[in-house]
Specification:
Rossmann fold, DNA-binding, 16% strand, homodimer, 3 domains, alpha/beta, 43% helix, 334 residues, four-stranded parallel beta sheet, elongated, 10 strands, 434 Repressor (Amino-terminal Domain)
Chain lengths: 334, 334
Amino acid sequence: MRSRPRPTIREVARLAGVSHQTVSRYLKTDDTISKALQQRIATAIAQLDYRPNLVARAMRSRKTGRLAFLLPPGTAISSLEMLTGAKTEAHSAGYVVEVVTLDGSPDTRTDRVLELADSGLFEGLVSLTALPDVSSRRDPQGPPIIVAPHYDEHMRSVGELADAPAVEEFITRLADQGHRRFVHLAGDYVHMSARRRREVYIETIERLGLDSYGVIDCDWLAQRARQAILDLPEGSGVTAVIAANDVLAVGAISGAYLRGWLVPGDLSVTGWDDNPVAAAMTPAVTTVSVDYQSLGRRAVSRLLATLRGEEAPESREPVSAAIWRESTGPAPTT
Amino acid sequence: MRSRPRPTIREVARLAGVSHQTVSRYLKTDDTISKALQQRIATAIAQLDYRPNLVARAMRSRKTGRLAFLLPPGTAISSLEMLTGAKTEAHSAGYVVEVVTLDGSPDTRTDRVLELADSGLFEGLVSLTALPDVSSRRDPQGPPIIVAPHYDEHMRSVGELADAPAVEEFITRLADQGHRRFVHLAGDYVHMSARRRREVYIETIERLGLDSYGVIDCDWLAQRARQAILDLPEGSGVTAVIAANDVLAVGAISGAYLRGWLVPGDLSVTGWDDNPVAAAMTPAVTTVSVDYQSLGRRAVSRLLATLRGEEAPESREPVSAAIWRESTGPAPTT
DNA sequence: TCGAAGTTAGTGAACGGTCACTTCGCATGT
DNA sequence: ACATGCGAAGTGACCGTTCACTAACTTCGA
């Protein structure tokens, strides 16, 4: 049947007995075409099984309807959530989002982004990772590039994503419940988020005049967190553990369990990430949930604003929220 | 400085004092160009900050170096892992992978895929969701479309991903350890994976002549799993729980804990997903890890084989593996 | 010394759409 | 009756690259 080459707009036009331009107008749903012709063209398109070549269209019109979403290499659930949010936002503005992974060193990445920007494939780009010099080197006439650096080159959270206001909330409320002596189980410091949580922990303890047993480096390893609790000297006075994520929190709870301590009766524990398994345990783990989708939406909406020539809205509503569950409670009364 | 229009290959050619075709050859790293000219062209490119327009290139050459990875809407960690695997495989063959979300009904999706296929944007497409009639309706001359239906239209695992051989392994080994009476905590049956795990549970119990307390519908809710264990009558004889995922397993462990039962001393529990938090608990949960990346790699390698005109390799090595941890052990000796 | 083959570079068309401009037909106003 | 304006449709150029040919020059063997 239909054999070699894909039908083009001109063949559709020939079959419908109109000019190619009329078909082009029809495809753009230009309403200055008479009903009769619209019908003829529709029939011809169906008959030839015609589908427009988007590459050719993009070449002439410089409009591709596509945005690029640039991620550093590596796998993180958060990035998928952000992507989902980005897609939602882009879709409502009639754009398609594509994911492109950027590997290599920061400078290489900038080069690659500039290539993509000038490739004509995208009308705008959102990068979740930092790109040195990109704003000065990019073509001012080219597609806008929004840098929302949520990750460094190893998919580690930075910036907004690494903010740790919830740590402050945890400590404040636990102090209200009578806790005086805390310990922090920290993640791997190559992660900005681990550093930030530690910083906020130290600051808050200090500001509120509380007591800290210290910061224990756990490197995101549950085993270390468990051992840290097991190693706590008898009578250390620690009643609350601020863990850098849910895995460490669960490791800590595991350590408490092995010592025969009750959580939260003897020890309160907080985590981070809102892992569904941590919510299923007894005790369910108090944690922090991060609204990644809204971060993705926000990045794209900034891009869309720039595309429309508007000033980019710089909303800074909080994206993370503490979720209080069973692993925290009043300090023991002893 | 550099102002309005992007420099083209012809401007580079003019500046370098050669023809545009020579520049084109240079860009393809065609080695039939004298060293002297190569040098002049390189200088001109650098001076003009020229970057090739990939859209124009794609239009003429019909080669875009891009593959599309089609996902149903929805968020799942697994799909990100598969994407990572797909990227690795594609990258090693010099292709870039783009993610496109397919929404709408199955028929709408097929239409959209055909549009994408004939859009000229991609040299091949991999769909992780079923596409009715796509093989009969697609242009035989167009880019190949591989359908690896791991998900249905709601991002629920189907096919290979829903296979549940590990359930068989769990039951067999637990039976070896003296367990005779089992219970299955099932997920939401709209998920093929939940149905498959239940089926394999029932079949295996039957085949080995074991005893089942029954299948309890838990709908992926930890609360239900916990309650199911709490509701187990005293002396039910159940010593092993096969839960459909880690959340249900942890809910079950939570129920056992509330009844004062020891895991695995009184009750063995298995999960599914290898959630890191479930591994951090005491007891660490016996579970199943699925190698999503290899699924992604495999799908792309099938596509690449088709692109090269080879027969697609249909490897069926197992993608999931049981991980035995502390939540399972010998049956109580009473 | 000359022709064949090989190497290096150039010329113009072509890819499949859209843009800018033109043409045609008809209603309208004076 | 004729200029004016507007809507509907057509004409040909153009977007930036690569492809298919062709041209010029070099090398080499007989």
